[in-house]
Amino acid sequence: MNADSNGNIVEQNIYVTPDNDKGSYSGVNRNHSIAPSSSVYDPYYEDGMDTVNSQTGLTDAQKQELAILMLNQINHARMDRGLKPFVMTEQKYQQAQVRASQHSAEVFDHNQDDINSAFGQDQYENLAYIDANNITNMLDALSSADNTLSSMLNADASSDWGHRENFLEDTGTLSANAAFGMHLTDDGQYYVLTFDYDLSNPDSTPNMMDRIAQYQAMGPITGDSHVVDNSAKINDLNNQISNLQNTLASQQSKLQNLQAQKANVQFDLSQLNADQQAEYNNAKYTLNTINDWKNGQLANINKDGHVQEAINKLNQAKTSLTAEQSKLAQANQDLKNATDMQTQADTNLQQAKDGLAQLNQVLATKQAALQTAKDNANASANQAVKDAQAKLDKINGKIADLNKAIEATKATISNAQAQLDKDNQKITDIKNGQKPTNPNKGDDSQTTTPTNPSKPNTGSQPTTTPSEPSKPDSGNKGDKPVTPTNPVKPNNGKDEGNSQPTTPTNPTTPAKPDHGNASISGQAGHKPATSDNSSQTADSNANSETSASQSNGQVSVSDAGVTMTREQYKAQRNELPQTGNENSKAVIALGVLAGMFGLSLASKGKKEF
User: Which of 145, 272, 526, 609 is deepest in the core (most CB within 10 A)?
Assistant: First the structure.
């Protein structure tokens, strides 16, 4: 609003910046403010003219007057925006004074417990200070209060305009019940200012704002007139008494409820401590005193001589009532807290018992499951040991059979070695220049002088003079295969049956021994045994000439660690002395068995991790 004082000495409107430019004062009307320095306000500074005691501060009547003047300005700002004005009942005003006296309000703490204890429920709330310095009368008080209101309305950016929003909250069709509270700080420097309201459906009668007509001029009595029309004050007093009656009725109802609660929870005064008993007794005494005083005052209310005295006593009674109401409310709250604590303790105890029973049931289930698991594990382990022992016995039997086969092979090898020694002796004799002779068996007509030995005639070519035989390699143990050039028995032109050199037949691949499962399952730290591929041929490859020749064209000689091609193997076989098919088969069998059971068996082992 930006209006003048509407002909009144005391301002009724307070400037509020536009909503779209909240922090700007560019449109303010400088005439629209209280100016205590103006001569029009001189009467306010005369002795006895509505002065304020600098030591004790505002009286309760002055606080009411200032609260009505401030809320009147806020309501004008609200109505200018089309909002419903606030109302202020006597009860709300008294609750606001309790809130202003709380320490949390002085330190700007919107403490929920304190708010609830003062008003009975949560509130929209503003907290601020009014500078108490240099306040000598109500005009000074209103001027200082307006400075605080103006800051909350127009300079509230640091609070995100929360104070402004509370003052200008849209309450719809509801005239919310609001009140200002004031309390002088201990050092006398400031008044704690509180503003509270809620959006419940309040009992808004009687409305203290109806008394604005008494204060809006706020001018002192001038001239020689000393007659005061007390009709307005009498009406107001009647309203206050009516309000007090309502308050007393409410308190009596609360007392009855408390007595009913006392019966329900077996309450008696012995359950309260000494302070609580004293508060309870004082509250009852005060209520009875006020009720007696009310009845006495109603009889004399219309007598002029008793009006001011009645007003003073009423104010004192209201102050006492407020204090006792607070004490009674605290006693009720203490009782409720004690009852709630007992109920909660009983609930917690029952929950603990239920939880313990559930835990015991779970424990029993877990123990049964554990025993079952142990029984199953023991049964499985015993069966695994039996199975492993059976496999081990089977393997041991096969090993015994293999040992017998090895012994038989050793005998064959021994015989083959003897025959090999004879063959080597023949080779030595040939190297020394002795020519082998074959006796005449009578099949030819003349004796044939044998030629020097050469590579065997395959039957399709005539006999040629062989070259000087090379010395056999008897010490080469390197990795490169060497084809020996040992001389063979010469062909004397006679058919001697099986004495002709022939390409050896590939021996039949012997069946692999059944190794079974040589590991023992169920023993920690052991892995199934595996073959060492660096010193033996894997079980998946046949340890025979036949399988090696078919797979990669090479023959694996296990005891020498040398790999030769199939052609090299054939050449070497053809250049060895032919001592008959029986010996050849023995040598071949020797190689095959050595590959199967010799070094392979010696190098086979078991790994542990």
Answer: 145
